[in-house]
Design goal:
mainly alpha; 2 domains; Tetracycline Repressor, domain 2; single chain
Length: 221
């Protein structure tokens, strides 16, 4: 009886592992497709072909492209966003937190253009940068408002100014060559729009960019 239960447990675990591997293949294939120039128009058939699976297998894991987009966005932004948030926690000036967050994203696009194209294409039919980043951006702006550092009073308005201008800047960076200080110019523009004095905005935008800090791994109990 014990051997029977053990065999069943092993079969269930092997099945779970196979399912996880297949799901990971689908997400990786979708990320590759979304990172291509025409990735915005990727279809289920394209993802299935790239992942080497059937359409039926795709539907075993996702209800459609909308759910897949959410999953891909989470997979490709969660760890990065976690590191950005961890780094922002070390900064005392709420305005600098906004500045550094934007510069981290634009710096990543400069280094990994395919990631930037994925963000453009994933954001086109969903929440800009995904739900996690969307919430974090609003909270970062809200903190700066509460500290009296911005003249605007609506965190959602500030969030849209930050994310909207940043995604537009990413699109520009992918289409054309920009100067080395383009990210700082974008940040200064956003900060002025949020109510920071122009001189202060430019100075904040040009502060040294801190090292991106990843939080220590959580030890399992």
């Amino acid at each position: 009886m014990a051997d029977g239960r053990s065999d069943k447990s092993r079969r269930l675990e092997l099945g779970r592992q196979r399912r996880a591997r297949t799901r990971a293949k689908i997400i990786a294939a979708a990320f590759e497709l979304f990172g291509e120039d025409d990735g915005l128009h990727s279809r289920i058939e394209d993802v299935a072909q790239r992942a080497g699976i059937t359409r039926a297998t795709f539907y075993d894991h996702f209800s459609g492209m909308a759910e897949l987009r959410d999953a891909v966005t989470y997979e490709v932004t969660h760890d990065f966003l976690t590191a950005v948030s961890h780094t922002l926690d070390t900064l005392a000036d709420p305005r600098e937190r906004i500045s550094v967050a934007i510069r981290f994203y634009l710096d990543r696009v400069r280094k990994v253009p395919g990631w930037g194209r994925s963000m453009i294409n994933l954001s086109a039919n969903g929440i800009i940068f995904g739900a996690e980043t969307f919430r974090e951006a609003e909270q970062t702006v809200a903190t700066a408002i509460a500290a009296g550092q911005l003249s605007i009073t609506d965190p959602a308005l500030g969030r849209d100014a930050v994310l909207g201008t940043t995604i537009a800047a990413i699109s520009t960076m992918l289409r054309e060559e920009r100067g080395a200080d383009y990210a700082e110019e974008v940040v200064a523009l956003i900060l002025v729009g949020l109510g920071v004095a122009p001189g202060d905005a430019d100075a904040i935008a040009r502060r040294p960019l801190p090292e991106l800090l990843f939080p220590p791994p959580v030890e399992s109990i």
